Design the sequence.
């Protein structure tokens, strides 16, 4: 058990809808990362937060947004969903801003129909 | 940004054989070099890491070697077992300065056959 909790585990929704994915980092970790993993694809970096502030941004679509709250949990909001957004979304946390191990949750599987 | 490549993309070995996966990166400022293992239906899990002041690190059947001059590091698994079958990712990163997009390698599917 990595200590990182992601909810929900599975999400099925229709095109055009909006969903929110939630992540609780490991106790003591200040940094949260979001990754997207499509079928047979690698891990695509979306965004990183550290202690409530955005620190790095990957190829995150404008339809996607995220935030980290004072209690350090994070939410990833996906709107105007398209079929191509169907993927596994992983949250990871680490104790430092950079250069430290990442601890991954087991992901949220999003299916857009 | 950081370009990270892994080779091979798939690797099939017989149980008991050794497996080697290589990760090549472009950012010369990288100084933290981890390997992650992803089993089916789970998130990636750190299995071993190394920092740039060390050339090699070993933990039981797994080891990581670093060639900073050539900008690559490798994962070595000896005496492979069926439970080693998984996808392996590298994720080199900086400790200081610059962006921190934490790019993962393209992944290597390792299959250990009985």
Sequence:
């Amino acid at each position: 058990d990595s200590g990182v909790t992601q909810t929900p585990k599975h999400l099925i929704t229709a095109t055009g809808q909006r969903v929110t994915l939630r992540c609780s980092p490991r106790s003591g970790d200040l940094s949260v990362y979001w990754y997207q993993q499509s079928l047979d694809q690698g891990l695509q970096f979306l965004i990183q937060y550290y202690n409530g502030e955005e620190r790095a941004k990957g190829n995150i679509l404008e339809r996607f947004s995220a935030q980290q709250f004072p209690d350090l949990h994070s939410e990833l909001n996906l709107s105007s969903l398209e079929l191509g957004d169907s993927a596994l979304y992983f949250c990871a946390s680490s104790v430092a801003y950079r250069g430290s191990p990442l601890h991954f949750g087991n992901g949220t599987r999003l299916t857009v129909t | 940004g950081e370009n990270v490549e892994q080779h091979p993309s798939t690797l099939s070995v017989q149980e008991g054989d050794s497996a080697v996966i290589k990760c090549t990166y472009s950012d010369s400022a990288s100084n933290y070099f981890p390997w992650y293992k992803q089993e089916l239906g789970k998130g990636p899990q750190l299995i071993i890491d190394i920092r740039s002041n060390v050339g090699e690190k070993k933990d039981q059947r797994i080891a990581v070697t670093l060639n900073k001059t050539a900008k690559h590091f490798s994962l070595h698994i000896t005496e492979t077992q069926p439970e080693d079958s998984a996808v392996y990712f590298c994720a080199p990163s900086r400790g200081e300065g610059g962006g921190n997009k934490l790019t993962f390698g393209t992944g290597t599917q390792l299959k250990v056959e009985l």
